[in-house]
């Protein structure tokens, strides 16, 4: 049965403020992007950093 369940893929994220890094599931990143598009925000999707609590956690390039 598990052969039919898709494996999660991850995006490496990095905080531009404190340097914290973590892997975020792509489905979670896609939901953030969708919410931003709904709000007519064309910025690169980002979230609050769990370490410094600033909205500066972006995909690492």
Summarize the structure.
This protein is of the alpha+beta class and 61 residues long. It has one helix spanning 26-38; strands at 10-15, 21-25, 57-59. It has a domain at 21-59.
Describe this structure in words.
By secondary structure, this protein is α+β, with helices and mostly antiparallel strands. The protein contains 1 helix and 3 strands; from the N terminus they run ββαβ. It is flat. The model has no long low-confidence stretch (mean pLDDT 88).
Largest sheet: 3 strands, antiparallel
Query: How would you state the average pLDDT, rounded?
Result: 88
Q: For the CA atoms, what is the radius of gyration?
A: 13 Å
**Helix tally?**
1
Q: What is the 3D form? A: flat
Q: What structural class results from the helix and strand content?
A: alpha+beta
The count of strands amounts to 3
Q: Could you tell me how far the N terminus lies from the C terminus, measured between alpha carbons in angstroms?
A: 36 Å
Helix content: 10-25%
Strand content: 15-25%
Low-confidence stretches: none
Lateral strand order in the biggest sheet = 2-1-3
H/E series: EEHE
């Amino acid at each position: 049965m598990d052969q039919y369940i898709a494996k999660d893929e991850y995006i490496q994220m990095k905080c531009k403020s404190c340097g914290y890094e973590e892997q975020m599931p792509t489905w979670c990143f896609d939901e953030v992007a969708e919410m931003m598009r709904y709000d007519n925000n064309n910025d690169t999707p980002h979230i609050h950093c769990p370490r410094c609590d600033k909205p500066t956690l972006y995909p690492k390039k």
